[in-house]
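Subject: Interface between my chains keeps coming out wrong

I've been trying for a while to get a sensible model of this assembly. When I model each chain on its own everything looks fine, but I need the whole thing in one frame so I can look at the contacts. Pasting all components below, labels as-is. Any help appreciated, I'm running out of ideas.
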Amino acid sequence: MVSGLFPVVLEGAETSRRGRVLVGPIDLTLDGTGICVFMGPNGAGKTSLLRLMHGAARLTAGSIRWACPLAQARRAQAFVFQRPIMLRRSVRQNIAYPLRARGVARRIALERAEAWAERVGLGGMLERQAPVLSGGEQQKLALARALITEPELLFLDEPCASLDGRATREIEDILLTARANGTSLILSTHNMGQARRLADDVVFMLHGKVHETGSAADFFARTRTHQAAAFLKGDIVE
Amino acid sequence: MVDLWSGLAQAFWLVVTLNSELIEIALRSLRVSMTALLIASLIAMPLAALLAVKRFRWRRVIIAVLNALMGLPPVVVGLVVYVLLSRSGPLGVLGLLFTPTAMVIAQVVIIVPLIASIAHQALRDLWQEYHDLLISMNVSQWQKIHTLLWDTRRALLTAALAGFGRAIGEVGAIMIVGGNIDHATRVLTTAIALETGKGDFALALALGFVLIAMAISVSLSIHWLSGTEREGRW
Ligand SMILES: Nc1ncnc2c1ncn2[C@@H]1O[C@H](COP(=O)(O)OP(=O)(O)OP(=O)(O)O)[C@@H](O)[C@H]1O
Ligand SMILES: [Mg+2]
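Reply #2:
Try treating it as a single job with all components included. I did that and got this:
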Protein backbone atom coordinates (compact mmCIF):
# COMPACT_ATOMS: atom_id res chain seq x y z
CA MET A 1 0.00 0.00 0.00
CA VAL A 2 1.49 3.30 -1.06
CA SER A 3 0.70 6.00 1.40
CA GLY A 4 -0.86 9.15 0.03
CA LEU A 5 -0.23 11.16 3.19
CA PHE A 6 3.49 11.67 2.99
CA PRO A 7 5.67 13.60 3.00
CA VAL A 8 4.29 15.77 5.77
CA VAL A 9 6.02 19.12 6.08
CA LEU A 10 5.97 21.23 9.23
CA GLU A 11 7.17 24.80 8.89
CA GLY A 12 7.42 26.91 12.01
CA ALA A 13 4.54 24.88 13.45
CA GLU A 14 3.57 25.90 16.95
CA THR A 15 0.83 25.14 19.44
CA SER A 16 0.27 27.35 22.41
CA ARG A 17 -2.20 27.54 25.20
CA ARG A 18 -3.10 30.70 27.05
CA GLY A 19 -0.11 32.47 25.53
CA ARG A 20 2.37 29.77 26.58
CA VAL A 21 4.05 27.92 23.71
CA LEU A 22 3.82 24.20 24.43
CA VAL A 23 5.86 23.12 21.48
CA GLY A 24 7.50 24.84 18.54
CA PRO A 25 8.43 26.44 16.30
CA ILE A 26 8.98 23.08 14.59
CA ASP A 27 10.52 22.59 11.16
CA LEU A 28 10.35 18.95 10.26
CA THR A 29 9.72 16.75 7.27
CA LEU A 30 8.66 13.13 7.70
CA ASP A 31 8.49 10.75 4.77
CA GLY A 32 6.45 8.14 6.61
CA THR A 33 8.55 5.11 5.87
CA GLY A 34 8.33 2.63 8.69
CA ILE A 35 8.45 3.66 12.31
CA CYS A 36 9.53 7.08 13.48
CA VAL A 37 10.27 7.29 17.19
CA PHE A 38 10.08 10.53 19.16
CA MET A 39 12.29 10.63 22.22
CA GLY A 40 13.12 13.17 24.86
CA PRO A 41 12.82 13.87 28.57
CA ASN A 42 9.50 14.49 30.34
CA GLY A 43 7.88 17.72 29.26
CA ALA A 44 10.00 17.94 26.10
CA GLY A 45 6.84 18.30 24.06
CA LYS A 46 6.47 14.87 22.47
CA THR A 47 2.81 14.51 23.30
CA SER A 48 2.08 18.06 22.24
CA LEU A 49 3.82 17.65 18.89
CA LEU A 50 2.12 14.35 18.11
CA ARG A 51 -1.25 15.85 18.97
CA LEU A 52 -0.47 18.88 16.88
CA MET A 53 0.39 16.81 13.84
CA HIS A 54 -2.73 14.72 14.30
CA GLY A 55 -4.92 17.79 14.61
CA ALA A 56 -5.93 17.17 18.21
CA ALA A 57 -4.12 20.32 19.31
CA ARG A 58 -4.62 23.67 17.66
CA LEU A 59 -2.00 24.99 15.27
CA THR A 60 -1.38 28.51 16.50
CA ALA A 61 1.46 29.45 14.14
CA GLY A 62 3.24 28.08 11.11
CA SER A 63 1.91 25.34 8.88
CA ILE A 64 1.55 21.58 8.57
CA ARG A 65 1.07 20.26 5.07
CA TRP A 66 0.17 16.71 4.15
CA ALA A 67 0.53 15.39 0.64
CA CYS A 68 -3.25 15.14 0.40
CA PRO A 69 -6.12 17.42 1.46
CA LEU A 70 -6.39 17.84 5.22
CA ALA A 71 -9.78 16.18 5.64
CA GLN A 72 -8.53 13.12 3.82
CA ALA A 73 -5.33 13.11 5.86
CA ARG A 74 -7.28 13.26 9.11
CA ARG A 75 -9.43 10.32 8.10
CA ALA A 76 -6.40 8.19 7.33
CA GLN A 77 -4.93 8.60 10.81
CA ALA A 78 -5.53 7.19 14.24
CA PHE A 79 -4.10 8.09 17.62
CA VAL A 80 -3.40 6.05 20.73
CA PHE A 81 -3.24 8.47 23.63
CA GLN A 82 -0.77 8.38 26.48
CA ARG A 83 -3.67 8.00 28.91
CA PRO A 84 -6.11 5.59 27.29
CA ILE A 85 -9.62 6.99 26.92
CA MET A 86 -12.26 4.37 27.51
CA LEU A 87 -15.81 4.82 26.34
CA ARG A 88 -18.24 3.72 29.04
CA ARG A 89 -19.18 0.67 27.06
CA SER A 90 -18.13 -2.92 26.73
CA VAL A 91 -14.76 -3.88 25.25
CA ARG A 92 -16.51 -5.10 22.12
CA GLN A 93 -18.45 -1.85 21.71
CA ASN A 94 -15.32 0.21 22.31
CA ILE A 95 -13.31 -1.50 19.61
CA ALA A 96 -16.21 -1.42 17.16
CA TYR A 97 -16.91 2.26 17.79
CA PRO A 98 -14.72 3.84 15.07
CA LEU A 99 -16.22 1.53 12.47
CA ARG A 100 -19.75 2.30 13.63
CA ALA A 101 -18.91 6.01 13.49
CA ARG A 102 -17.86 5.53 9.88
CA GLY A 103 -21.13 3.89 9.05
CA VAL A 104 -20.00 0.25 8.89
CA ALA A 105 -22.89 -2.14 9.48
CA ARG A 106 -23.30 -3.18 13.08
CA ARG A 107 -22.81 -6.90 12.56
CA ILE A 108 -19.64 -6.48 10.52
CA ALA A 109 -18.24 -3.90 12.94
CA LEU A 110 -18.80 -6.20 15.90
CA GLU A 111 -17.28 -9.17 14.09
CA ARG A 112 -14.14 -7.24 13.24
CA ALA A 113 -13.99 -5.91 16.77
CA GLU A 114 -13.98 -9.47 18.05
CA ALA A 115 -11.16 -10.40 15.71
CA TRP A 116 -9.13 -7.41 16.87
CA ALA A 117 -9.83 -8.11 20.53
CA GLU A 118 -8.47 -11.59 19.91
CA ARG A 119 -5.32 -10.23 18.29
CA VAL A 120 -4.47 -7.93 21.20
CA GLY A 121 -5.30 -10.57 23.77
CA LEU A 122 -8.64 -9.23 24.97
CA GLY A 123 -10.64 -12.06 23.43
CA GLY A 124 -11.81 -13.34 26.79
CA MET A 125 -13.27 -10.05 28.01
CA LEU A 126 -15.46 -8.81 25.18
CA GLU A 127 -18.43 -8.11 27.42
CA ARG A 128 -16.48 -6.46 30.22
CA GLN A 129 -16.95 -2.73 30.73
CA ALA A 130 -13.88 -0.97 29.37
CA PRO A 131 -13.41 1.45 32.29
CA VAL A 132 -12.83 -1.44 34.70
CA LEU A 133 -10.00 -2.96 32.64
CA SER A 134 -6.47 -2.80 34.02
CA GLY A 135 -4.19 -0.06 32.71
CA GLY A 136 -2.37 -2.45 30.40
CA GLU A 137 -5.60 -3.94 29.07
CA GLN A 138 -6.88 -0.44 28.38
CA GLN A 139 -3.79 0.29 26.32
CA LYS A 140 -4.31 -2.87 24.32
CA LEU A 141 -7.92 -1.92 23.75
CA ALA A 142 -6.90 1.54 22.59
CA LEU A 143 -4.47 -0.04 20.13
CA ALA A 144 -7.07 -2.39 18.71
CA ARG A 145 -9.56 0.47 18.43
CA ALA A 146 -6.99 2.53 16.55
CA LEU A 147 -5.96 -0.22 14.15
CA ILE A 148 -9.45 -1.42 13.31
CA THR A 149 -9.94 1.41 10.82
CA GLU A 150 -6.73 0.33 9.03
CA PRO A 151 -5.17 3.79 9.20
CA GLU A 152 -2.33 4.76 6.89
CA LEU A 153 -0.68 6.51 9.79
CA LEU A 154 -0.89 5.57 13.43
CA PHE A 155 0.30 7.84 16.24
CA LEU A 156 1.17 6.11 19.47
CA ASP A 157 1.99 8.14 22.55
CA GLU A 158 3.93 5.81 24.85
CA PRO A 159 1.84 2.79 23.91
CA CYS A 160 3.61 0.40 26.26
CA ALA A 161 4.06 2.65 29.28
CA SER A 162 2.13 0.41 31.68
CA LEU A 163 2.63 -2.96 30.05
CA ASP A 164 4.77 -5.79 31.32
CA GLY A 165 7.56 -7.34 29.25
CA ARG A 166 5.42 -9.94 27.60
CA ALA A 167 2.56 -7.62 26.72
CA THR A 168 5.09 -5.13 25.35
CA ARG A 169 6.43 -7.88 23.10
CA GLU A 170 2.93 -8.69 21.88
CA ILE A 171 2.18 -5.06 21.15
CA GLU A 172 5.48 -4.61 19.34
CA ASP A 173 4.69 -7.63 17.20
CA ILE A 174 1.36 -6.07 16.27
CA LEU A 175 3.09 -2.79 15.45
CA LEU A 176 5.70 -4.55 13.31
CA THR A 177 2.95 -6.42 11.48
CA ALA A 178 1.19 -3.13 10.86
CA ARG A 179 4.39 -1.65 9.52
CA ALA A 180 4.92 -4.64 7.26
CA ASN A 181 1.42 -4.04 5.91
CA GLY A 182 2.38 -0.51 4.98
CA THR A 183 1.10 1.48 7.95
CA SER A 184 3.32 4.37 8.93
CA LEU A 185 3.90 4.63 12.65
CA ILE A 186 4.89 7.63 14.71
CA LEU A 187 5.44 6.80 18.33
CA SER A 188 6.91 8.36 21.42
CA THR A 189 8.57 6.25 24.05
CA HIS A 190 10.75 6.43 27.12
CA ASN A 191 11.69 2.81 26.70
CA MET A 192 15.16 2.81 25.18
CA GLY A 193 15.03 -0.87 24.33
CA GLN A 194 11.77 -0.36 22.50
CA ALA A 195 13.19 2.58 20.58
CA ARG A 196 16.14 0.46 19.46
CA ARG A 197 13.92 -2.46 18.51
CA LEU A 198 11.37 -0.48 16.54
CA ALA A 199 12.83 2.76 15.24
CA ASP A 200 13.65 3.37 11.61
CA ASP A 201 14.02 7.08 12.25
CA VAL A 202 14.47 9.05 15.44
CA VAL A 203 13.38 12.55 16.40
CA PHE A 204 14.97 13.77 19.62
CA MET A 205 13.09 16.58 21.35
CA LEU A 206 14.13 18.99 24.06
CA HIS A 207 12.42 22.02 25.61
CA GLY A 208 9.56 22.06 23.14
CA LYS A 209 11.75 21.90 20.05
CA VAL A 210 13.18 19.28 17.75
CA HIS A 211 16.77 18.95 18.85
CA GLU A 212 18.14 16.27 16.57
CA THR A 213 16.81 13.98 13.86
CA GLY A 214 18.32 11.10 11.98
CA SER A 215 18.00 7.50 11.00
CA ALA A 216 17.91 5.13 13.94
CA ALA A 217 21.18 3.49 12.94
CA ASP A 218 22.99 6.84 12.90
CA PHE A 219 21.31 8.16 16.03
CA PHE A 220 22.11 5.19 18.21
CA ALA A 221 25.63 4.82 16.81
CA ARG A 222 26.77 8.42 17.22
CA THR A 223 24.55 11.26 18.28
CA ARG A 224 25.45 14.66 16.96
CA THR A 225 24.53 16.65 20.05
CA HIS A 226 25.84 16.10 23.54
CA GLN A 227 22.30 16.44 24.96
CA ALA A 228 21.11 13.47 22.93
CA ALA A 229 24.20 11.54 23.94
CA ALA A 230 23.52 12.31 27.59
CA PHE A 231 19.87 11.25 27.16
CA LEU A 232 20.89 7.92 25.61
CA LYS A 233 23.30 7.27 28.47
CA GLY A 234 20.49 7.91 30.91
CA ASP A 235 21.99 11.12 32.29
CA ILE A 236 19.91 14.13 33.16
CA VAL A 237 19.60 16.37 30.14
CA GLU A 238 19.91 20.12 30.69
CA MET B 1 -51.45 11.31 64.51
CA VAL B 2 -55.09 10.34 64.26
CA ASP B 3 -55.32 12.23 60.96
CA LEU B 4 -52.27 10.47 59.56
CA TRP B 5 -53.67 7.05 60.40
CA SER B 6 -57.14 7.77 59.13
CA GLY B 7 -55.57 9.28 56.01
CA LEU B 8 -53.58 6.13 55.46
CA ALA B 9 -56.64 3.97 56.07
CA GLN B 10 -58.75 6.06 53.73
CA ALA B 11 -56.04 5.96 51.06
CA PHE B 12 -55.96 2.21 51.39
CA TRP B 13 -59.74 1.97 50.96
CA LEU B 14 -59.81 4.38 48.05
CA VAL B 15 -57.21 2.28 46.29
CA VAL B 16 -58.56 -1.19 47.01
CA THR B 17 -62.09 -0.20 46.08
CA LEU B 18 -60.75 1.34 42.89
CA ASN B 19 -62.53 4.59 43.65
CA SER B 20 -63.42 5.91 40.22
CA GLU B 21 -62.87 9.55 41.07
CA LEU B 22 -59.47 8.84 42.56
CA ILE B 23 -58.45 6.83 39.55
CA GLU B 24 -59.58 9.55 37.19
CA ILE B 25 -57.62 12.21 39.07
CA ALA B 26 -54.55 10.06 39.49
CA LEU B 27 -54.47 9.08 35.84
CA ARG B 28 -54.83 12.71 34.82
CA SER B 29 -51.92 13.64 37.04
CA LEU B 30 -49.87 10.91 35.51
CA ARG B 31 -50.84 11.81 31.95
CA VAL B 32 -50.18 15.53 32.34
CA SER B 33 -46.83 15.07 34.04
CA MET B 34 -45.68 12.26 31.77
CA THR B 35 -46.50 14.31 28.70
CA ALA B 36 -44.72 17.29 30.19
CA LEU B 37 -41.72 15.10 31.01
CA LEU B 38 -41.58 13.68 27.50
CA ILE B 39 -41.74 17.08 25.83
CA ALA B 40 -39.35 18.66 28.30
CA SER B 41 -36.83 15.84 27.82
CA LEU B 42 -36.99 16.20 24.06
CA ILE B 43 -36.15 19.87 24.47
CA ALA B 44 -33.73 19.70 27.40
CA MET B 45 -31.51 16.76 26.50
CA PRO B 46 -30.43 17.89 23.03
CA LEU B 47 -30.09 21.43 24.36
CA ALA B 48 -27.84 20.17 27.15
CA ALA B 49 -25.76 18.15 24.69
CA LEU B 50 -25.39 21.13 22.39
CA LEU B 51 -24.32 23.32 25.29
CA ALA B 52 -21.75 20.72 26.26
CA VAL B 53 -20.07 20.17 22.89
CA LYS B 54 -20.55 23.35 20.93
CA ARG B 55 -18.81 26.63 21.57
CA PHE B 56 -21.00 29.55 20.62
CA ARG B 57 -21.40 33.08 21.81
CA TRP B 58 -24.36 32.83 24.14
CA ARG B 59 -23.38 29.49 25.62
CA ARG B 60 -22.27 30.71 29.04
CA VAL B 61 -25.23 33.04 29.34
CA ILE B 62 -27.68 30.27 28.49
CA ILE B 63 -26.08 27.93 31.03
CA ALA B 64 -26.22 30.59 33.73
CA VAL B 65 -29.85 31.38 32.92
CA LEU B 66 -30.81 27.69 32.92
CA ASN B 67 -29.16 27.21 36.29
CA ALA B 68 -30.97 30.24 37.66
CA LEU B 69 -34.31 29.08 36.23
CA MET B 70 -34.02 25.76 38.06
CA GLY B 71 -35.41 27.50 41.08
CA LEU B 72 -38.14 29.27 39.17
CA PRO B 73 -41.24 29.77 41.38
CA PRO B 74 -44.04 27.73 39.76
CA VAL B 75 -46.63 30.34 40.67
CA VAL B 76 -44.82 32.88 38.54
CA VAL B 77 -44.61 30.44 35.63
CA GLY B 78 -48.32 29.77 36.02
CA LEU B 79 -49.03 33.47 35.98
CA VAL B 80 -46.99 34.10 32.83
CA VAL B 81 -48.49 31.13 31.01
CA TYR B 82 -51.93 32.31 32.13
CA VAL B 83 -51.36 35.76 30.69
CA LEU B 84 -50.06 34.31 27.43
CA LEU B 85 -52.99 31.90 27.06
CA SER B 86 -55.77 34.12 28.36
CA ARG B 87 -58.36 35.22 25.85
CA SER B 88 -56.75 38.64 25.41
CA GLY B 89 -53.21 37.23 25.42
CA PRO B 90 -51.04 36.56 22.35
CA LEU B 91 -51.95 32.85 22.30
CA GLY B 92 -55.55 33.39 23.41
CA VAL B 93 -57.02 32.27 20.09
CA LEU B 94 -55.88 28.72 20.79
CA GLY B 95 -58.36 28.52 23.65
CA LEU B 96 -56.01 26.46 25.80
CA LEU B 97 -56.56 28.09 29.15
CA PHE B 98 -58.12 25.76 31.75
CA THR B 99 -57.26 22.65 29.74
CA PRO B 100 -54.77 19.88 30.52
CA THR B 101 -52.69 21.19 27.61
CA ALA B 102 -52.14 24.46 29.45
CA MET B 103 -51.00 22.47 32.47
CA VAL B 104 -48.58 20.53 30.34
CA ILE B 105 -47.17 23.77 28.94
CA ALA B 106 -46.64 25.21 32.41
CA GLN B 107 -44.95 22.05 33.64
CA VAL B 108 -42.68 21.91 30.61
CA VAL B 109 -41.52 25.45 31.33
CA ILE B 110 -40.88 24.54 34.94
CA ILE B 111 -38.90 21.35 34.38
CA VAL B 112 -36.90 22.09 31.21
CA PRO B 113 -34.29 24.15 33.12
CA LEU B 114 -34.03 21.48 35.81
CA ILE B 115 -33.55 18.60 33.38
CA ALA B 116 -31.23 20.59 31.12
CA SER B 117 -29.03 21.71 34.01
CA ILE B 118 -28.57 18.26 35.49
CA ALA B 119 -28.09 16.70 32.06
CA HIS B 120 -25.63 19.38 31.00
CA GLN B 121 -23.44 18.77 34.01
CA ALA B 122 -23.17 15.05 33.30
CA LEU B 123 -22.68 15.56 29.56
CA ARG B 124 -20.01 18.19 30.07
CA ASP B 125 -18.01 15.95 32.39
CA LEU B 126 -18.16 13.07 29.96
CA TRP B 127 -17.28 15.32 27.05
CA GLN B 128 -14.12 16.38 28.88
CA GLU B 129 -13.23 12.73 29.23
CA TYR B 130 -14.06 11.79 25.63
CA HIS B 131 -12.96 14.98 23.92
CA ASP B 132 -9.56 13.91 22.57
CA LEU B 133 -10.77 10.52 21.45
CA LEU B 134 -13.82 11.74 19.56
CA ILE B 135 -11.89 14.61 17.99
CA SER B 136 -9.23 12.14 16.93
CA MET B 137 -11.85 9.91 15.33
CA ASN B 138 -13.33 12.79 13.39
CA VAL B 139 -16.86 11.97 14.42
CA SER B 140 -19.60 14.31 13.25
CA GLN B 141 -21.31 16.72 15.59
CA TRP B 142 -24.37 14.51 15.55
CA GLN B 143 -22.40 11.38 16.42
CA LYS B 144 -20.69 13.23 19.25
CA ILE B 145 -24.03 14.19 20.74
CA HIS B 146 -25.45 10.74 20.19
CA THR B 147 -22.48 9.08 21.87
CA LEU B 148 -22.54 11.42 24.84
CA LEU B 149 -26.28 11.06 25.35
CA TRP B 150 -26.05 7.29 25.18
CA ASP B 151 -23.08 6.96 27.51
CA THR B 152 -24.58 9.29 30.12
CA ARG B 153 -27.98 7.66 30.02
CA ARG B 154 -27.97 6.86 33.73
CA ALA B 155 -27.42 10.48 34.68
CA LEU B 156 -30.00 11.54 32.11
CA LEU B 157 -32.49 9.16 33.65
CA THR B 158 -31.85 10.76 37.02
CA ALA B 159 -32.37 14.17 35.45
CA ALA B 160 -35.65 13.01 33.93
CA LEU B 161 -36.86 11.54 37.20
CA ALA B 162 -36.02 14.76 39.02
CA GLY B 163 -38.06 16.57 36.39
CA PHE B 164 -40.94 14.16 36.78
CA GLY B 165 -40.87 14.56 40.54
CA ARG B 166 -41.05 18.30 40.25
CA ALA B 167 -43.84 18.11 37.68
CA ILE B 168 -46.11 15.68 39.47
CA GLY B 169 -45.73 17.39 42.83
CA GLU B 170 -46.22 20.88 41.47
CA VAL B 171 -49.39 22.74 42.39
CA GLY B 172 -48.96 26.51 42.04
CA ALA B 173 -48.75 26.78 38.27
CA ILE B 174 -51.31 24.19 37.28
CA MET B 175 -53.78 25.58 39.75
CA ILE B 176 -53.61 28.90 37.93
CA VAL B 177 -53.61 27.69 34.33
CA GLY B 178 -55.76 24.60 34.91
CA GLY B 179 -58.27 26.01 37.33
CA ASN B 180 -58.78 22.75 39.22
CA ILE B 181 -62.00 22.02 37.34
CA ASP B 182 -63.69 18.77 38.33
CA HIS B 183 -63.55 16.10 35.60
CA ALA B 184 -61.42 18.39 33.44
CA THR B 185 -58.28 19.72 35.05
CA ARG B 186 -58.32 18.41 38.58
CA VAL B 187 -55.17 16.50 39.43
CA LEU B 188 -53.83 15.02 42.66
CA THR B 189 -52.01 18.11 43.88
CA THR B 190 -54.82 20.53 43.17
CA ALA B 191 -57.30 18.12 44.74
CA ILE B 192 -55.13 17.95 47.84
CA ALA B 193 -55.07 21.75 48.03
CA LEU B 194 -58.84 21.82 47.66
CA GLU B 195 -59.56 19.15 50.29
CA THR B 196 -57.15 20.79 52.71
CA GLY B 197 -58.95 24.07 52.19
CA LYS B 198 -62.26 22.38 52.90
CA GLY B 199 -60.81 20.88 56.08
CA ASP B 200 -61.04 17.26 54.90
CA PHE B 201 -57.56 16.36 56.07
CA ALA B 202 -58.10 12.62 55.87
CA LEU B 203 -59.03 12.73 52.21
CA ALA B 204 -56.24 15.21 51.49
CA LEU B 205 -53.78 12.91 53.19
CA ALA B 206 -55.14 9.93 51.33
CA LEU B 207 -54.58 11.72 48.03
CA GLY B 208 -51.11 12.66 49.25
CA PHE B 209 -50.21 9.05 49.96
CA VAL B 210 -51.47 8.03 46.56
CA LEU B 211 -49.31 10.76 45.02
CA ILE B 212 -46.21 9.56 46.84
CA ALA B 213 -46.90 5.94 45.97
CA MET B 214 -47.33 6.88 42.33
CA ALA B 215 -44.11 8.88 42.18
CA ILE B 216 -42.18 6.01 43.74
CA SER B 217 -43.66 3.38 41.46
CA VAL B 218 -42.97 5.45 38.36
CA SER B 219 -39.36 5.86 39.45
CA LEU B 220 -38.98 2.18 40.24
CA SER B 221 -40.55 1.00 37.02
CA ILE B 222 -38.43 3.32 34.89
CA HIS B 223 -35.31 2.07 36.65
CA TRP B 224 -36.48 -1.47 36.26
CA LEU B 225 -37.37 -1.09 32.60
CA SER B 226 -34.03 0.47 31.76
CA GLY B 227 -32.17 -2.04 33.90
CA THR B 228 -29.84 0.59 35.30
CA GLU B 229 -29.51 -0.73 38.80
CA ARG B 230 -29.15 -4.34 37.84
CA GLU B 231 -25.87 -4.34 35.98
CA GLY B 232 -23.83 -3.06 38.89
CA ARG B 233 -21.00 -1.77 36.78
CA TRP B 234 -19.13 0.46 39.12
N1 LIG C 1 -3.14 21.56 27.90
C1 LIG C 1 -2.01 22.08 28.40
N2 LIG C 1 -2.05 23.24 29.07
C2 LIG C 1 -0.91 23.77 29.59
N3 LIG C 1 0.29 23.20 29.48
C3 LIG C 1 0.38 22.04 28.83
C4 LIG C 1 -0.75 21.41 28.25
N4 LIG C 1 -0.36 20.26 27.67
C5 LIG C 1 0.96 20.19 27.86
N5 LIG C 1 1.43 21.24 28.55
C6 LIG C 1 2.85 21.51 28.92
O1 LIG C 1 3.61 21.44 27.74
C7 LIG C 1 4.85 20.82 27.99
C8 LIG C 1 5.08 19.67 27.05
O2 LIG C 1 4.21 18.63 27.43
P1 LIG C 1 4.12 17.24 26.68
O3 LIG C 1 3.00 16.49 27.29
O4 LIG C 1 4.07 17.49 25.23
O5 LIG C 1 5.51 16.58 27.07
P2 LIG C 1 6.02 15.10 26.77
O6 LIG C 1 7.29 15.23 26.04
O7 LIG C 1 4.98 14.28 26.16
O8 LIG C 1 6.31 14.60 28.25
P3 LIG C 1 6.16 13.11 28.86
O9 LIG C 1 7.40 12.40 28.48
O10 LIG C 1 6.12 13.39 30.33
O11 LIG C 1 4.92 12.53 28.34
C9 LIG C 1 4.85 20.44 29.45
O12 LIG C 1 5.58 21.40 30.17
C10 LIG C 1 3.39 20.45 29.82
O13 LIG C 1 3.23 20.81 31.18
MG1 LIG D 1 3.86 12.71 26.71
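Reply #3:
Confirming on my end. Residues A 17, 22, 40, 42-48, 82 surround adenosine-5'-triphosphate (ligand 1) (CB under 6 Å).
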